[in-house]
Amino acid sequence: MKSHILSLLVLLTPSTAQITFQDSSSTILRTDNGTHGPPMEEYHYYHTQWPIGLAISSTGRFFATYTRGTYAYTLGEAVNKTAEKPYPSLSHQVPVSQLNTSWSDIPFGSNNSTGLISVQALYITPASALRPETLWVVDTGRPTIHDADGTPSMPYAAPGGPKILAISLDNDTVYATYTFPVSVHYPDSYMNDIRLDLRPSVTASGGGIARGRVGAG
């Protein structure tokens, strides 16, 4: 279970004012008087590791990403309000012992072009005639590592590590993977987010376009 208490709040239909959390002493800690929108549902709880990216499918499946350090997985699917499981499976997550390497004493992330290294963002596109409902996964390829004193740092990206994967939500399989040459994704680049427009009319090829946000550091 990846779980500091953080609760994910989801808007529901309008209703009357309600108490959303009250402790054992009857102290009201959260209320919704209805003036700022509909009441909120506490959808999922995290207790030790909070998420970075979130996505919910058309059928209500809930996915979350986590900065990769010593955790067994970086992409998970909620199985109840307090627990998650590796997604698509544990075997898709690059093992912690293989997350980074070094060249000439310079730390680099893994160059694994198929396994998940450190996922930052998610985006879901609906089913169409060309593709199933798809979970798009942005893998930075740059996990958090710690030195002998426990100080965290981020290694450079190795070619093949930073990538975008397309996962079919019909059968939970990866059906496309996109990596980047070093002329596009530099060692100190960091992919942050992605949006897609997959309408066939957008491009001559009919495949649509993807726009990402990339930083450096």
Automatic annotation (TrEMBL):
Residues 1-17 form the signal peptide. Keywords: Secreted, Signal. It comes from the Eukaryota. InterPro entries: 6-blade_b-propeller_TolB-like, MRJP/yellow-related. The keyword NAD does not apply. It is found in: Secreted. One of its GO terms (cellular component) is extracellular region. Belongs to the major royal jelly protein family. This is Uncharacterized protein. It comes from Pyrenophora tritici-repentis.
